[in-house]
Write a structure and sequence with these properties.
CATH topology: TIM Barrel
CATH architecture: Alpha-Beta Barrel
Strand content: 15-25%
Number of helices: 11
Distance between the termini: 12 Å
Shape: globular
Order of helices and strands: EHEHEHEHHEHEHHEHEHH
Bound molecules: D-xylitol-5-phosphate, zinc ion
CATH class: Alpha Beta
Helix content: 25-40%
CATH superfamily: Aldolase class I
């Protein structure tokens, strides 16, 4: 599998001190910063958009791993590219009608979003909600349109929820088998107590919000997560 990357979710940071929080967590060993964008429509919560990412970019050279929990991902591609986002991860369920997705062939609407993200100069991530079958993302990975697949292990919308193990995190395994070099990200309820199952399933990009920002010593949590994945 590719190198282990720890991407703390700033959803659990102090939003009034975002630049300092980002700087602090990078100095403590974070590889990427996971930025959760919620539109109050695709998920029942509102967070931040491209204007905040653009402001943060002036204070940070970190890799911005943006997770767009929004109903119309295509609408925001140019704004995020201009704001300095590095990874643009959109939901498979948002890019096309989930009922029209198939494991056998790529849906043109999803493929178009993926191509537009890359054309805008960002890396392409596709996220799957817990109930979405992993087979449905395979056509895009096989077509070479995707740099990362994000497997959600909570229902998106809020930090601090309980990790869904078993079959949900288990969706990583067939992806890893079929695509040894792919970035596979797990997001939701990841902590030192759940990381072993995440690592065993084959993920290499680890998101953790409350476990990192809620810790007395976030650097130790980052190091512990990394050590568990690296074995
Ligand atoms: C869930 C978000 C996650 C969330 C993770 O809607 O996509 O990135 O911030 O937070 P924790 O690690 O606390 O579950
Ligand atoms: Zn996220």
């Amino acid at each position: 599998r590719p190198a282990t990357l720890i991407s703390p979710s700033i959803l659990s940071a102090d939003f009034a001190l975002l630049a300092e929080e980002c700087d602090r967590i990078v100095k403590l060993g974070a590889d990427w910063l996971h930025i959760d964008v919620m539109d109050g429509h695709f998920v029942p919560n509102l967070t931040l958009g491209a204007p905040v990412v653009a402001c943060l970019r002036k204070h940070s050279r970190a890799y911005f791993d943006c997770h767009l929990m929004v109903s119309e991902p295509a609408k925001w591609i140019d704004d995020f590219a201009k704001a300095g986002a590095n990874m643009f991860t959109f939901h498979l369920e948002a890019a096309a009608d989930p009922a029209a997705l198939s494991a056998a062939e790529a849906h043109p609407a999803v493929a178009d979003v993926a191509r537009a993200v890359r054309a805008a100069g960002m890396e392409v991530g596709i996220a799957l909600k817990p109930e979405t079958a992993v087979e449905l993302v395979m056509p895009y990975v096989e077509a070479g349109l995707v740099d990362m697949v994000l497997i959600l292990t909570v229902n998106p919308g809020f930090g601090g929820q309980k990790f869904m193990g078993g079959d949900v995190v288990g969706k990583c395994a067939p992806l890893r088998r079929a695509h040894p070099g792919l970035h596979i990200q797990v997001d939701g309820g990841v902590a030192p107590s759940t990381i072993d199952e995440v690592a065993a399933a084959g993920a290499n990009v680890i998101v953790a919000g409350s476990a990192v920002f809620g810790a007395e010593r976030p650097g130790e949590v980052i190091a512990a997560l990394r050590a568990s994945v690296d074995g």
